[in-house]
Structure formats: C-alpha cells, structure tokens
Design a protein that fits this description.
Layout (H helix, E strand, L loop, with lengths): L1 E5 L3 E5 L18 H13 L5 H25 L11 H11 L1
Antiparallel strand pairs: 1-2
C-alpha cells in the first residue's frame, strides 16, 4: 500500500493512490449548475486546486474504500493481533498530522 496525500493534506492508504502515468484517459461530464457550484465549494473546502483533482480524489477514495472493504472482509474471522499499548496515542498523533 502507498500512503498518499488527499483532500487538503490528509492521507489515504490505497494500492496506487495519486497515480502518475505518462498517459491518462480523458472523460467529460456534464453537471447541473447547482451541483457544479457545490462541487467548486467542496473542492476549495478540501484544498484541491481544480475540479479535476477533486473528482480524481473522490475516485481514488472510492477505490481505497473498496480495497479496505476487501481487506476487512478477508480478516473478519481473524486471527486478530492485539493492539499495542500506545495505540490511542498513535491515533491521536496521526490525527494531528492530518
């Protein structure tokens, strides 16, 4: 897994987050004006520089979520590894870096 920046400095775990290819496909979408205005608002709120980056981030997050769901389903029945004693501190530290 790769840790990659997403949405205003947060990080996500994804197999190939923030792909960097020499060639990329182009898609064109049409959205109603109110939705475009909301998309622009959200784009700024999460710190993306363009609508394209914002939409790419949404797709990447969806792919990462799918990967997470797969891993959770595989591990649902265990075996389970005990958490380290400082797990809460690690979560807090990770949250302050986001």
């Amino acid at each position: 897994m790769v840790r990659a920046p997403f949405a205003g400095g947060r990080e996500i775990d994804a197999p190939s987050a923030r792909w960097h290819f020499e060639a990329m496909s182009t898609i064109t979408i049409s959205v109603p004006d109110p939705l475009e205005a909301k998309m622009t608002e959200r784009m700024h709120a999460v710190g993306e520089q363009s609508k394209e980056q914002y939409v790419l981030g949404l797709v990447e997050a969806d792919c990462a979520s799918e990967e997470l769901e797969r891993v959770l389903a595989e591990r649902w029945d265990g075996p389970f590894t005990p958490l380290p004693a400082d797990w809460k501190d690690r979560v807090r530290q990770a949250a302050t870096r986001a």
